[in-house]
Amino acid sequence: MATQAQIKKGYIDYVLTNDEQPKSVYSFVKKLKITEAEFYAFYASFESIEKNIWFELTIETIDEVKKQELWAQYSSREKMLSFFYSYVELLKSQRSFVIYSLKKQPKKLGTPAVLSGVKPIFENFAEEIINDGLASGELADRKFFAKRYKDALWVQYAFILNFWIDDDSNGFEKTDEAIERGIQVTFDLFQRSPIDNLFEYGKFLSQNGKLKEKMGF
Question: Where in the numbering of this chain does the Tetracyclin repressor-like C-terminal domain appear (predicted)?
Fold first, then answer.
């Protein structure tokens, strides 16, 4: 009886050896010496194998960082940094597959098909972190904009991923720097700034315009 892990491993071995998907499920299962029924018991297509691999890598990282002893004490910024450092570390074990999987995606705007299952998982995780930051006062609760913070972090996800697959520096040290700089800048934008104070002051003045009349200005 075939196992999901056996099919996944066989698929990864095949695409990395041949730099393309198998010609058909029939030829693939024949090579693995399993039946088509056994294949379809776990996967609907080759694409679903890739989506599942990405999904599992992301879930594994989220589970692992949440188990960290100091996780509950981390700021939102530190939690997101921890996720990306851990994610890239895990992806190193599958670097050849990651490069293959992403490079073959059509060049177009929007989320690549293989990451369609990752996006909602990542955004839910990011939203948890953001909500913690809003509740603690670490992040600015801006009307309308706060709901878009998770979108900014998804942009960072895509940027970091693409940066890493093209990174040829020793130990991928440039990727570490890209993570540090990108997350720091993004969370700086999420926090209160002089601009927020200016808006609040303008709001105060507009709501209390009659003070001018009373004071004779």
Answer: 79-205
CA–CA separation, 39 vs 42, rounded Å? 6
Give the model's pLDDT for residue 202. 60
First-to-last alpha carbon distance for the chain, in angstroms, is 86
CB 196 within 8 A of CB 97: no
DSSP letter, residue 14: H
**Contact present, 50 and 64 (Cβ < 8 Å):** no
CA dist., res. 140 & res. 162, Å (int)? 29
DSSP 178-190: HHHHHHHHHHHHH
pLDDT digits (tens, 9 = 90+) for 110-128: 788 999 999 999 999 999 9
Positive or negative torsion for Cα 57, 63, 69, 73: positive
